[in-house]
Write a structure and sequence with these properties.
By secondary structure, the protein is α+β, with helices and mostly antiparallel strands. It has 17 helices and 18 strands. The longest helix has 20 residues. Bound molecules: flavin-adenine dinucleotide (FAD).
Length: about 475
């Protein structure tokens, strides 16, 4: 991909020299650091930024962004680098702003069940900080992402079916605008009707509208009783029908995740799981009082038996439960190990729950016809699943076949009233699908982007092309 930079090398030098007295050795120019920041966990390759900066506070970011704006130098916020749609590629060069030094939990308010964190706090560190207050933060993408990155990509995870996504979790933000203004959005109130909702506008903006530096989050009490189990099926259709029925009966499951037979095989190998079979399997978790959990379990057992599900295998201890979910979170890494030197193209469609079976079964059929190995793993309680397409990046026909297969899955989801991305975001990889999904809304999105970032310095080339 050719990189066209909207600034001259001398302007970049001027900006770096001007920032040096304030930032000192927190400006990194080495090739290794730049390359590490010019890519995510995806198959889009690497386009390195010209410099990487590690800011400590809002005021520093405001100065950096304002100076970059003056010289039209792109700014690409960087969290943990775990995004999967080419979000971090420096397609027009510029500066990567790595928020990892802004990693303080600023306040925890147990009485209101909320907290305020800096953007570089990771989800695992936040849960460590919350454990003595009997609270937890439920949004759990497979990677140990930062809260800033998760807000910017509108992430979700295995708990979303009960606790919602980042959209429900974030109630306020501090944002540095492209012109270097420090603004606060939202309040600590549970709800508000005050004006345009800037918090929601920033969630999912993928670094294209400003730098998120602080996040006010809604938290949840750790449930009195937690039980986790798996149940395997002879076919994917039977597993999906179980999920659809459970959702339609409003069983308040905390987690219900599907892994198809090949994904189970990959996880058994990668995570060295014992006593599991390579069959379509549901991973489930139940939260609540002892009575309500027993009631949920009884309902789900009835439904799964109707579709030929196996007896439940229970993860009895906290350690066993953690191992189970770790194996689930490592599903992508497990798929990567299916073939030597392969890459994985990830689809992320989400459809209405009644269309889930059609969508998944068609994806399986298309995958088989493509001749490529593919696994399926999904947050099926939300209607969201990933077809992980394995391909050899040295074989052009496999690259093409993977792209075609991915396109088929997305087009089917759109035809069923779904979305091209349930949680990973648009990045550079799904821009053309955004136009197909929102043909009437795209112009308003462009207007918003142009009015907030008229010089297009914030993560240019992502989400929408101007
Ligand atoms: C193994 C694996 C499993 C995954 N599972 C899931 C899953 O279950 N659910 C899910 O939603 N995702 C999943 N992902 C994708 C990824 O973890 C999420 O997209 C995550 O939210 C990215 O956070 P990050 O901190 O790594 O952000 P980065 O990758 O560093 O950045 C992502 C985007 O956000 C922008 N950004 C980052 N920080 C800020 C900030 N402070 N202000 C403004 N913009 C910012 C960046 O510019 C970029 O556009 C998975 C990824 C992997 C590798």
């Amino acid at each position: 991909m050719p990189v066209v930079k909207p600034y001259s090398p001398s302007d970049l030098k001027r900006v770096i020299n001007e920032l040096a007295p304030m930032l000192g050795d927190r400006i990194h120019l080495s090739q290794a650091t730049r390359e590490q920041h010019g890519q995510g966990e995806d198959s889009y390759g690497c386009l390195a930024p010209d410099a990487v900066i590690y800011p400590f506070c809002n005021e520093e970011i405001a100065q950096i962004v304002s100076l970059c704006n003056q010289y039209s130098i792109p700014v690409i916020p960087f969290g943990a680098g775990s995004s999967v749609e080419g979000h971090l590629l420096a397609v027009q060069g510029g500066i990567s702003l790595d928020l990892s030094e802004m990693n303080q939990v600023l306040e925890i308010n147990p009485a209101d069940m909320d907290c305020r964190v800096q953007a570089g706090v990771t989800r695992e560190d936040l849960n460590m900080a919350l454990r003595y207050d009997g609270l937890f933060f439920p949004v759990d993408p497979g990677a140990n992402a930062t809260i800033g990155g998760m807000t910017a990509t509108q992430a979700s995870g295995t708990n979303a079916v009960k606790y919602g996504t980042m959209r429900e979790a974030v109630i306020g933000l501090t944002v540095i605008t492209p012109e270097g203004e420090i603004i606060k959005t939202g309040t600590r109130a549970r709800k508000s009707s005050a004006g345009y909702d800037l918090t929601q506008l920033m969630i999912g903006s993928e670094g294209t509208l400003g730098v998120i530096t602080e996040i006010q989050l809604r938290l949840h009490p750790i449930p009195e009783t937690i039980k986790a189990a798996i149940c395997s099926f002879e076919t994917v259709a039977a597993a999906v029908d179980t999920v659809i029925n459970a959702m339609q009966m409003a069983v308040p499951l905390a987690r219900i995740e599907l892994l198809n037979a090949l994904q189970m095989q990959a996880c058994i190998n990668y995570s060295k799981l014992e006593g599991f079979e390579a069959k379509p399997t549901l991973f489930m978790e139940f939260h609540g009082t002892a009575d309500s959990v027993n009631e949920q379990v009884a309902l789900i057992k009835d439904i799964s038996h109707e579709f030929g599900g196996s007896e439940f295998t229970w993860a009895e201890t906290t350690e066993e439960r953690n191992e189970l979910w770790k194996a689930r979170h490592n599903a992508y890494l497990a798929t990567l190990k299916l073939q030597r030197d392969c890459k994985v193209l990830t689809t992320d469609v989400c459809v209405p729950i009644s269309a889930l079976a059609t969508s998944i079964l068609q994806a399986e059929k298309d995958a088989e016809a493509s001749g490529l190995q593919s696994t399926i793993v999904g947050h099926v309680g939300d209607g969201n699943f990933h077809l992980l397409i394995v391909f050899d990046p040295s074989k052009s026909e496999q690259i093409e076949a993977a792209k075609q297969l991915s396109e088929k899955v997305v087009m089917k989801a759109l035809a069923l009233g779904g979305t091209c991305t349930g949680e990973h975001g648009i990045g550079i990889g799904k821009k053309h699908y955004l136009a197909l999904e929102h043909p009437t809304g795209l112009n308003m999105m462009k207007t918003i982007k142009k009015s907030i970032d008229p010089k297009n310095i914030m993560n240019p080339g992502k989400v929408i092309d101007l």
